[in-house]
Write the structure tokens for this entry.
Amino acid sequence: MKKIVLLVAITATLFACKDVDEDEVINPDYNVSFTFTQNWDGTKLENSDFETTEFTNANGDVLTISKLDYLISNVTFTSETGETIFVEGHNLINSREGLNINYNLDQKIPEGEYTVSFTFGLNSDYNIDGAYPDLTSANWGVPTMLGGGYHYMRLEGTFIDETGANQGYQYHTIHAVDNPGDNPQPEDTSFEVNLGSISVFNDKFIEVEMNVAEWFRNPNQWDLNELNNNLMMNAEAQRMMSENGKSVFSLGPIADILE
Amino acid sequence: MKFLKNIPFIFFIGLCCLLVSSCAKNESTTPEEEGYEPTPLTLEVPRLFEEKISPPIIPGNNPQTVEGVALGKKLFFDPILSADNTLACAGCHAPNEAFTDSRQFSPGIDGINGNRNSMPLFNLAWNYQENFFWDGRASSIENQALQPVVDPVEMHNTWPNAVASLQSDAEYPQLFSEAFGSSNIDSTMVSKAIAQFVRTLISGNSRYDQFLRGEIELTEAESNGLNVYVDETRGDCFHCHGTPPNNLLWTDNDFHNNGLDEIITDLGRGGATGDPREFGAFKTPSLRNLAYTAPYMHDGRFETLEEVIDHYSEGLVYSETIDPLMKAVGEGGVHLSEQDKQDLKAFLLALSDESFINNPDFQKP
């Protein structure tokens, strides 16, 4: 009897060891963290630049930036064999105050080579009015007459207009709505940002760079004298901003997370 | 053997000694030393708040308790904290005025006026940024509650003096003992008690809340006013005051220069942070309970809602730190029609909560 008990105990111990060790060794999972940085054509945007540093956009408008908050969601890792790891969730970045510039995924990623992407804003499946108390509490909502849901970005500041006067601008991106009112039909203008190929073989910091100048340049040269406010109600402006946004993000340095 | 026979007796005597010493200890220890715990109290959060916005902020070192809230309420209405026992918190934060003051500036115990309008007090547990006062200089409700007592133009007291008054009072030591497990009063305990009471001041039953709950219909003017409120080309109020129907706080709890003055004399947020980019910026006040909170703005310059709406419609003036959300500043604003102004006012008044100002739990004990 004693021998049987001993045998069972040893077997159980061995099986327990096998479960842990083999998974750890053969199929390790790693932490992945994103850091979001902003620049104007390569010059990093620091807190001290807000409201003080003048930039000139592609149209020649001289502007300052006072607010740059934006939302990203649903980071996706696609393996070489086409399998996807979908990390559902969103992250609202306040670049001026440096809030949420680091986004730590709440699930580990298995070792491998991946194409990494995320959504700028929330796509229509996720852009559900009132669904996210954290975003609602951050006053990130879009009025019902514009289809509800949430902003994608609030870029605000001042520019020198054609008369030489300082004027505010609100470059706010949301879904496009041609018919604001009682029965709006939102058109999804969020877009996927593809960061390219990334090797995950250790815990990783991945920097994502936003070149703010691109919002005003490519493919639509932005004239702030024409388009400076009330853009949430301007569906065509939303489509143009969405087009410009597709060249805004790029992959920055990748570093190992040191323990 | 005789010793063994006596074991039950010795055990009995030992047990008695333990019981005696235990009783003696009870007489000399504080409730805190006994492991005393005041009675937990759950905030009465409106259902719509629970569904739509993040939970209220309650600091881990100051949980809500029945005894703490009761003590905080007594302190709030008691002039004992002021140097000459004449001015309570409620002296400038009256329940029937949504806990603000109908005077432009509130006089302190020496008859000297402050330079900012008393802020209304409600839904402060949902100030996620935790910056209190018009300039956000206090980092918690507890921290905020400490300041008026020693402000020379308010209660003009010292904390040692205020604490001594409470300590020598016939009732307070026992009440503090019940709330915090110690009758040795200090300023931290006072601020914690007041903060607990202030967190119970919850307003979530305006006509608009009732409309969202499906209990009433808005009037035509109120509905039109809501459209003005959310229309970027007209009111565009929501970017600072919250987007209906989900953000029911009616403030972003952030700081803005809303175009009141060309020359900034009160630095506002900038005075608290030292950052020139924030000169002239003030906390966005909630639009709840406007029916009871006149006069308006940080300096109470506007006596009526009509004046407030006129300011945003055609009274904006430029200064270096003006918020980009202020539109058409060169023309003074977007020039709302008279009908839009009236409708907007009707909607804003639908955010007032009569049950809040009449709540018996919030009245003077």
Summary: The CA atoms of residues 250 and 287 of chain B lie 5 Å apart. The radius of gyration of chain B is 26 Å.
